From TrEMBL:
Transit peptide is among the record's keywords: yes
Membrane-spanning parts: none
GO MF, one example: ornithine carbamoyltransferase activity
Aspartate/ornithine carbamoyltransferase carbamoyl-P binding domain span: 39-180
Pathway(s) per entry: Nitrogen metabolism; urea cycle; L-citrulline from L-ornithine and carbamoyl phosphate: step 1/1
Protein's name in the database: ornithine carbamoyltransferase
Family: Belongs to the aspartate/ornithine carbamoyltransferase superfamily. OTCase family.
Domain Aspartate/ornithine carbamoyltransferase Asp/Orn-binding positions: 187-339
PANTHER family linked to this entry: ORNITHINE CARBAMOYLTRANSFERASE, MITOCHONDRIAL, ORNITHINE TRANSCARBAMYLASE, MITOCHONDRIAL
UniProt main location, coarse: mitochondrion
């Protein structure tokens, strides 16, 4: 190579490095400028790439400062959260109660036996009453329309703790877990093998925005909602990621970094159990499923887990991230409520995306 060519190559390489640095600074600046105070959190469909990255950054920052540096951060001192639970839960209840308390706030747990939501009192009236008592509401409900009714009437933020359509707080924990494990998210391939349910819907509203490819295998008749598929296809095209929908689990798993599944029989579907188990034959995640993945493949499950969904060899292996994933439900709900209720600025460096 002559001197002139060497000079051109050197300039090109240095220019690329400069461009990448500027791009990184621009990206960091746009994410750092995000302010979510006062927003509700019903679906990740309503949140941009920068906003989701900001939530993950705040969550990671709180985890580092509180868990690893042993700092006390009373960011929610004097604030309270109403926790409405139409459906029982372990992780959602414990993560919210312990996380909100750890930040100095007061959680109030309300079941359908404690309040009259939509029965003796309308959702609208309940929302107005709670708006005068507390600062934020987390509702774990059967119908997504209940959340929309609460949000329309409330003057405080409403958080979706789970609905029949979406489970966005679970997805924040999943992506924080993957970010911690792999170092960054962009370019990862996540394969969902299971039911076309609320957790999958939230993955579909988020993955492309973080530069993550998504491969989905569901049995015929158990596909995601069509409107969610259309929105996911639009997001994939917009962000330059791949989206695959198939009924073949091994096809979905091929070349993946992450295998994900969930219960095949959700609460309220117990009468369908026998048929569902038959329809999902061949969908159990095993080491054989992982054999077509990338060498660094890992496994996620939002819990509780049943044997038919994933065998012990995978679930309790070093590839399984399910227990760090469960713990991150706490740090991400903390990051979320802090972002929706305060002007907090993270003190640790921004995570790599």
């Amino acid at each position: 190579m002559n001197a002139a060519a060497m000079f051109v190559k050197l300039v090109s390489v240095n220019s690329l490095k400069t461009l990448l640095k500027l791009s990184s600074r621009s990206f960091s600046s746009s994410c750092a400028a995000v302010n979510l105070k006062g927003r509700s959190f019903l679906t990740l469909k309503d949140f941009s790439s920068d906003e989701i990255q900001r939530l993950l950054w705040v969550s990671g920052d709180l985890k580092h400062r509180i868990k690893h540096q042993q700092q006390y951060l009373p960011l929610l001192q004097g604030k309270s959260i109403a926790m409405i639970f139409e459906k029982r839960s372990t992780r959602t209840r414990m993560s919210t109660e312990t996380g909100f308390s750890l930040l100095g706030g007061h959680p109030c747990f309300l079941t359908s036996q404690d309040i009259h939501l939509g029965v003796n009192e309308s959702c609208s009236d309940t929302a107005r009453v709670l708006s005068g008592f507390c600062d934020i509401v987390l509702a774990r409900v059967y119908s997504h329309s209940t959340l929309e009714d609460l949000d329309e009437a409330a003057s405080i933020p409403i958080i979706n703790g789970l609905s029949d359509l979406y489970h966005p707080i679970q997805i924040l924990a999943d992506f924080l877990t993957l970010q911690e494990h792999y170092g960054s998210l962009r370019g990862l391939t996540v394969s969902w093998i299971g039911d076309g349910n609320n957790v999958l819907h939230s993955f579909m509203m988020t993955a492309a925005k973080l530069g993550v490819h998504l491969r989905i295998a569901t049995p015929k008749g158990y596909e995601p909602v069509q409107s969610v598929i259309q929105e996911a296809q639009k997001l994939s095209k917009e962000h330059g990621t791949q989206l695959l929908l198939t009924s073949d689990p091994m096809e979905a798993a091929h070349g993946s970094n992450v295998l994900v599944t969930d219960t095949w029989v959700s609460m309220g579907q117990e009468e369908e159990k026998k048929k569902r188990l038959k329809d999902f034959e061949g969908y159990q995640i095993t080491m054989k499923t992982g054999s077509v993945c990338k060498p660094d493949w890992t496994f996620l499950h939002c819990l509780p887990r049943k044997m038919e969904e994933v065998d012990d060899e995978v679930f309790y292996s070093s590839r399984s991230l399910v227990f760090p994933e469960a713990e991150n439900r706490k740090w991400t709900i903390m990051g979320l409520v802090v972002s929706l209720l305060t002007d907090y600025t993270p003190q640790t460096p921004m995570l790599k995306f």
